[in-house]
């Protein structure tokens, strides 16, 4: 993954590279429009590697550094706080600080990544039931009606 | 009933009411959603966290800047445009969401195209 290559120091770079490679591999396999037993097996194997890498990323890298919010996240939080203060008519100076953020693997979306093989076996390839189709058709219809410019 | 500890919220919905007596579990028909769950879910979470990591490192701002720069070069290479001039914002969009205008700043993750 040349975009991220060399940005992280030392051994962390290798972890990130390997994680990104596995994620891209899994993503490509999950997005295939035709599957066989072999490709599903490969998808399953890739997911095992990917989940191992993700846990490694969380346990080794995320402990080594203290991650803060992105500038846009802290800006959004301050805007929200400012709105709430305005409602209370008690304007208080914004803290301007950034909150610490942790990498959270315990979410439904990460959990569901393991169910892709089963879903494909039961319902067919992911392109037949992704929300992307719906989203694109909505944008197309709305742009025809000139309701949105995108 | 809400179990705060485990985030379990019991709900009744139309599927459960109508199909439950027939012995059908509505959860069997729910499929995964690749775009929202992975591309705009787990992948975006990972990417966001990688950028947080970059900011946390020494000289984080310049690292994020070089990440943005590399993305631009990468996109120019993919779409084979005039790579000597960074005119990537001027690449016209094509078709219905096939090629969209590229975000000015990758790390800010605005206008993410799935």
Strand content of chain A: under 5%
Q: Average pLDDT of chain A, to the nearest integer? A: 80
Alpha plus pi helix count of chain A: 6
Number of helices of chain B: 3
* Average pLDDT figure of chain B: 68
Give unreliable regions of chain B as ranges: 81-101
- For the termini of chain A, the CA-CA separation is 31 Å
Brief account:
The complex is a heterodimer of chains A (150) and B (114). Chain A has helices at 10-30, 37-64, 71-88, 108-112, 116-123, 131-144. With 150 residues, chain A is mainly alpha-helical.
Report on this model:
The complex is a heterodimer of chains A (150) and B (114). Chain A is 63% helix and 0% strand. Chain A contains six helices and no strands. Chain A has helices at 10-30, 37-64, 71-88, 108-112, 116-123, 131-144. Chain A is flat, with a radius of gyration of 21 Å. The two termini of chain A are 31 Å apart. In chain B, strands 1-2 form a two-stranded antiparallel sheet. In chain B, helix 2 packs across helix 3 (60-79). Chains A and B meet through helix 1, helix 2, helix 4, helix 5 and helix 6 of A and helix 2 and helix 3 of B.
Summary keywords:
heterodimer; A: 150 residues; mainly alpha; 0% strand; flat; B: 114 residues; two-stranded antiparallel sheet; 2 strands; elongated
Q: Strands, helices and their partners?
A:
The complex is a heterodimer of chains A (150) and B (114).
Chain A: H1 10-30, H2 37-64, H3 71-88, H4 108-112, H5 116-123, H6 131-144
Helix pairs in contact in A: 1-2
Chain B: E1 2-3, E2 8-9, H1 14-19, H2 34-56, H3 60-79
Antiparallel strand pairs in B: 1-2
Helix pairs in contact in B: 2-3
């Amino acid at each position: 993954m040349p975009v991220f290559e060399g940005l992280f120091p030392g051994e962390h770079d290798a972890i990130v590279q390997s994680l990104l490679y596995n994620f891209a591999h899994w993503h490509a396999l999950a997005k295939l429009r035709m599957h066989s037993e072999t490709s599903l097996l490969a998808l399953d194997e890739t997911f095992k590697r990917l989940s191992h890498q993700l846990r490694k990323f969380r346990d080794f890298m995320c402990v080594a550094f203290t991650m803060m919010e992105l500038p846009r996240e802290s800006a959004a939080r301050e805007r929200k706080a400012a709105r709430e203060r305005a409602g209370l008519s008690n304007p208080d100076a914004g803290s301007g600080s950034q909150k610490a953020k942790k990498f959270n693997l315990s979410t439904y979306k990460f959990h569901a990544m393991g169910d892709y093989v089963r879903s494909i076996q039961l319902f067919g390839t992911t392109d037949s039931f992704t929300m992307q189709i719906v989203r694109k058709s909505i944008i197309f219809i709305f742009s025809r009606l000139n309701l949105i410019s995108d | 009933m809400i179990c705060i500890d485990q985030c379990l919220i019991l709900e009744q919905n139309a599927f459960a009411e109508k199909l439950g007596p027939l012995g059908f579990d509505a959860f069997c028909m729910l499929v995964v959603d690749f775009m929202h769950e992975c591309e705009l879910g787990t992948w975006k979470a990972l990417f966001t966290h990688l950028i947080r990591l970059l900011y946390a490192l020494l000289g984080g701002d310049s690292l994020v800047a070089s990440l943005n720069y590399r993305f631009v070069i990468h996109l120019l290479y993919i779409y084979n445009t005039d790579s000597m001039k960074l005119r990537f914002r001027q690449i016209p969009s094509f078709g219905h969401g096939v090629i969209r205008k590229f975000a000015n700043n990758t790390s800010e993750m605005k206008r993410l195209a799935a």
